[in-house]
Amino acid sequence: MQKLVTFKEFTTITRSASIDTRQHGWRAGRLQTLIQLDLPVPRTVALSFETVHGIAAGRMPDVERILSAFGGAPLVSVRPSSQEARWGGPGAVLNIGMNDARYEDMVTTLGEAAASALYLRFIQTYAVQVSHLDDDLFDSPDTPSRTAVETALREYEIETEDYFPQNPAEQLVGVLRSMARAWESTSARLLRQARGAPAEAGLGLVVQEMALGVGADESGSGVMQFIDPVTGQSQITGRYLGQSQGRDALVDRERALYLTRDPRGPSLEELCPDIFDRLVQYGERCRTTLRDEAQVEFTIHEGDLAILDAIPVIRSAQAAVRVVVGLAEDNIISRHEALSRIPPRALNEVLHPRIDPETPRTRIVQGIAASPGAAAGKLVFSSTTAQAMAAQDEACILAKRETTPEDVRGMHAARGILTERGGTTSHAAVIARGLGVPCVVGASSVTIDRRSRTMTTADGTIYKEGEIVTLDGTAGEVLKGAVAMVAAGRDDAFESFLGWADEVRDIDVRVNADTPEDAALARRFGADGIGLCRTEHMFFAEDRLTAMREMIFADLPEDRADALAQLLPMQRADFTQIFRIMAGKPVCIRLFDPPLHEFLPHDRQGIIELAEALNRPVSDVQRRIDALTEFNPMLGLRGVRLGLTLPEIYDMQARAIFEAALDASEGGAPVVPEIMIPLVSACREVEIVKARVEAISAAVQTERRGKLTYRLGVMVETPRAALKAGEIAAHCEFLSFGTNDLTQMTYGLSRDDAGRFMGAYVRQGVFSEDPFLSLDTDGVGELLQIGAARGRAARPDLTLSICGEHGGNSESIAFCRGEGFDYVSCSPYRVPLARLAAAQSALKSAYGT
Amino acid sequence: MQKLVTFKEFTTITRSASIDTRQHGWRAGRLQTLIQLDLPVPRTVALSFETVHGIAAGRMPDVERILSAFGGAPLVSVRPSSQEARWGGPGAVLNIGMNDARYEDMVTTLGEAAASALYLRFIQTYAVQVSHLDDDLFDSPDTPSRTAVETALREYEIETEDYFPQNPAEQLVGVLRSMARAWESTSARLLRQARGAPAEAGLGLVVQEMALGVGADESGSGVMQFIDPVTGQSQITGRYLGQSQGRDALVDRERALYLTRDPRGPSLEELCPDIFDRLVQYGERCRTTLRDEAQVEFTIHEGDLAILDAIPVIRSAQAAVRVVVGLAEDNIISRHEALSRIPPRALNEVLHPRIDPETPRTRIVQGIAASPGAAAGKLVFSSTTAQAMAAQDEACILAKRETTPEDVRGMHAARGILTERGGTTSHAAVIARGLGVPCVVGASSVTIDRRSRTMTTADGTIYKEGEIVTLDGTAGEVLKGAVAMVAAGRDDAFESFLGWADEVRDIDVRVNADTPEDAALARRFGADGIGLCRTEHMFFAEDRLTAMREMIFADLPEDRADALAQLLPMQRADFTQIFRIMAGKPVCIRLFDPPLHEFLPHDRQGIIELAEALNRPVSDVQRRIDALTEFNPMLGLRGVRLGLTLPEIYDMQARAIFEAALDASEGGAPVVPEIMIPLVSACREVEIVKARVEAISAAVQTERRGKLTYRLGVMVETPRAALKAGEIAAHCEFLSFGTNDLTQMTYGLSRDDAGRFMGAYVRQGVFSEDPFLSLDTDGVGELLQIGAARGRAARPDLTLSICGEHGGNSESIAFCRGEGFDYVSCSPYRVPLARLAAAQSALKSAYGT
């Protein structure tokens, strides 16, 4: 017999009601569970996604029937219930049903202050959320009174040219419609997308009978949770406030009571020991049954305890990791589930460094701590600039009066965010926490001027775009200059967690590390080796730059060789150190890549100084700079092209690598360096470099009477190299896809120049995602597949990998795993993320979603 | 029984000797044919490629045996015999066997002058070609004498510290070795590669008994040919000089006789009517049998006629076409063979415009006319600059003191070549003729200074790099400024020839034409339509540039629309004219492509003027220019990205196209415009533009009450568009591969920046050819194949084509034909070449090579 699916506009939640989180949302499901756990939950009705979607489209359910589900004529609240708690939703509305008549009744039964508080709360919420009036119209009075109620009602009438609705059904219609529509707005859509929800995600709503929290006898409300939301350590935290509703206890902290006995003041434990004990019991029941740490929202109404909700504790990423580790250790969830529960990018937050507490701080701005962590960078005043700087790998702090959804991409690009306006729930704060970017909001003592690109602090000091500051999102401060930091958040739970990830994952995670410092960091982050060591960064240090420039200005190969000879010992020393730090783990060194003009000054002063240093006429220096200028440096004389044009450079580098390998092998296992050729587009390029490298290897072995083994590979960055991977693989041991450049060339799109339209492109769905953040599996990915297949066909033992930003992106990692790659390589701070993403991908393959 | 292949070091050429041009070269084969035709050819011995290759490697054949083949002790000559005549070879050496003893004998029998001439010629040739002495050491005396001989011998002894070899065998060894080695030299290798020979092509040599041409009775030498080598018209041309050898008659024109009766002086026809008649007879026999126009080299020795050789007439491309047309019309060869005989690139020469004879000329340089045709362009003084300018589509004239093989690529890039030194056989002259580039050499009155980048003319005027001049390679002059020209060389034979090509070919040839002028030219060149009409060039005209800049500076969409409204009538007028000129042939218009900053000034003065014109502060203009600057403009905000960012531009263009189509359709067949979207990388881009274009089409049809049909297509320029061709083709009617940009992106290589290393890359064989000249069928070609296959799978009636420089390259055309493309599109002057190349490709498919 076929099952009849009947459409229910609403469902009263009971132990056995048919509630499905995929239809009614997480909150409806959660409330049903609490009911099943015998918690004293007030009567609740759930509206499905379908119903709410219908409301937004103009199909209002029968609200009289909904209200009648509550019997009598109670006050009710409406709260959002999206499929996943983290996807958010519109704000709750309490005290629906309040009107003039009921107010008069309550003045009699509860007194003017309590009745006025209840009515005022409803009028204000309704005016702002339903009638879209300005928040400022309704200042909260210190003591709610009849006068305040009358003023609020008058304001409402003036602004709307209508009476405040008195009919509870009409009120509910307004609330449901505004919440349903708010969910469909563009900004809400963007916000939930930023949180990982699909744009078309549904919203459910729950209508719940109010437990008033105001009244005779002990009445009030509070929240209780069982961990420290920052560290995740076990600890009862929360507040209780007499004669209050909702989350008032968290707002009015001065008057609120502690929950456990506390030397700082009175506590609920002392005031109502029975109720306290019941709450603790309920908390334990929740943890075991809900398999998570919950924040319990409770109301005491005239001595009776009501549990309104138990929502997941809002927690830092560090705490999130500790919670799942604790749940797994208590056998409440499996390790695999623990791994699956943490979105990889959340780990970024744990890894953000903190300001070193030992360092002196020069505070220039004090604001509200809105998102933890600290970062230093150049001040910028627009999202576009932030994106442009990020594209050039420059750290920046984005300072804005306030942020809007248009800024989300800029905020993603910034290392830290500062706003003049707003509070902990402002757009900037919410988004920054979601992104794990340190953020300070409400820095009202400074003036941020986007036009003049300046920030003026309280004492009149002007900070211009480009000045370096440090933002401390944990303390809510901005400090002058770049302040010393310590790596942060990684505690024992974090290490256990990543250890579990390593047990599960089946693809290596290497790191992009250019210096011995990077290498040390990489080891701490548990990288399986170095996948990309960019040697050119080594040339930018002051003492090396001079030799580099002499090399560029050398007219004869001999002079060039002389200049390079100065660089050889420096490179060798760097490599030796890196090999030693990596202690036998593989190190893949990419030969010199950038165009030479990157090493030359571009301003007048720099050119004059260079002319002096080289003892050449300025005109000569200028001419050489002009000659090296390129129309499209990305597509110019760089990488292997430079290696073939000025072969002395690669010769020097190969020598430095081989000598360092021998030095680092002394007294230990032999180091087997990996040498990678950049920007290859033709097989012959590989053959030529290979022959020269081989010759250098032979020479070094003879000179040093040592035995060397090394592996040669190619960085596949041009579409042509991917197409010709079969031929190329015949001459090398590994292929590493440089997906940054490969994406640029496949799209014909420079990352540095895409900023001006990428935002609009992603918003309009022209590109489903920014291909520089998440690998374009469809287009660029096909080149990876072609390259991998042809490479492996030519050489079955070929090592395959990707390096570049995509190496730290979960979807991209899953793609590479699926294609049978041997490793991904990403920047040091992304290594933990990549380890987790790799583990989750493996779990997904083994057990499905 | 197995055939024994025996290696013959040399073969005496007889009617029945076993001579194979693939082993002995064209000249050996040709001489055998002449013997078979009963022409009086002196005894000749052929040395095979294998023998000559052996000589270069040190394995000298038995020269005594070679000499004995001639009986007695005659004088002999050695001449090169490569597989194809046009591949060249080292210069001939005459009079081998001359020595002191024989000289004394000849003084007695022939007189001092004749004997001295014979000996001096040999000493000089031997000294320069075999002993590599400086040419200048041996000035030719007006009357050869014993003193001159003695001086020459002494010079030889001083320079070589050795006696001049007296033994004929030793002399022959020296000659054979030097010729064999010269063929293997790098410069010879490059030269023959420029002429289409494989680098490892072999050289044969022929050793021939000398017919002396000096002696008692009528003696002398001459050459006779039966066409005008410039126009190809039938006409006996050539010269005869008494008491001379080799090609002396062509050098000493003042003393030489005409062949036919001529009012200007005495003729061979009058002097020796019998011999003249025999020569004409031989000439006719040669034409019919050799199936080509030959230049007959003859010697009269004491009244006896000897035919030394009959080589293909060196002819202009115009003549070459007329010759094959004549041969085909006389049924000596088939039309197909006629088509196959002309290398497509030779047609370039025919098409080069000539200076308009009606125009006044200001001559600034007089030199030697070395390669016909005329061209105007900017003066440049290095091959690198020439290549850089060509990459930017800028015409330039390359001026050098002299050219070397290193300059070949620069000469290819230049529109004309001027050298201070050298004669008609100098490197510059030979290469220029091969390339079909107009050339003037030996302009000894000017001083060309590469360092200061100036050319100083006889009257002391200094011309700097960048100044525009016109080079007339037909007259041997350089003129001031850009002089008016007329299209040239296309005569009735040329038109017949291309008509035959059209009958054979099975792929359309369209033209890249941006203006009504281009369109008119394209029709004259027989294009099947316009394959690429770049609309942005229309915006660079003075009056339009201002509106364009206003558009760029508009802050609001309305202001932008206003500025574009000014451009609309201009674009519409252009399109209307183009549609009318093309008279129903298809016209494919590409929507706006370049980045906006190309339209802004970049020098201080230009910025100030623009600020005045726009009535804005300079700082404002500067800021906008800075904001639009891109790191990699090739990969930036251009093409469809601009079309989506500022949709008003495409809207205006679509409107102009549709209105023009309706205007041009009036009173004739309806025009069906083709609209092409540039730089697509995602399918959604096409969908969005398509929707807007469709809306404009509907609006115009309503407003104008007309019916419009149009075709929408995509320019496939990014690797991603090629990969996604299946999805894209679902939304459009045609795909045109923009192989210029596609090559840049597939290689990750900017054409503008490749100049600095491309030469070295091709020379070293890193790239087998410059992929911007000849389509990289291997890499870029695979993307074309993928795109074509996926496109056709999605839409079987999809039109496929390429546009860009490769559309005019023979190999690239053959590739596109092979892949079933519908058309190629190339620049106007390449259309005839493309028509021929398409025909040759079709013939090759039908009949094999």
From TrEMBL, chains A, B:
The EC number of this protein is 2.7.9.1
Q: Which cofactor does it need?
A: Mg(2+)
Task: Report the domain of life of the source organism.
Answer: Bacteria
- PROSITE patterns the UniProt entry points to: PEP_ENZYMES_2, PEP_ENZYMES_PHOS_SITE
Residue stretches making up the PEP-utilising enzyme mobile domain: 394-476
Q: Which keywords does this chain's UniProt record carry?
A: ATP-binding, Kinase, Magnesium, Metal-binding, Nucleotide-binding, Transferase
Boundaries of every PEP-utilising enzyme C-terminal domain copy: 495-841
Function in brief? Catalyzes the reversible phosphorylation of pyruvate and phosphate.
Q: Which family does it belong to?
A: Belongs to the PEP-utilizing enzyme family.
Question: What is the designated name of this protein?
Answer: Pyruvate, phosphate dikinase
Organism, by scientific name, is Meridianimarinicoccus marinus
User: What is the phylogenetic placement of the source species in the record?
Assistant: Bacteria, Pseudomonadati, Pseudomonadota, Alphaproteobacteria, Rhodobacterales
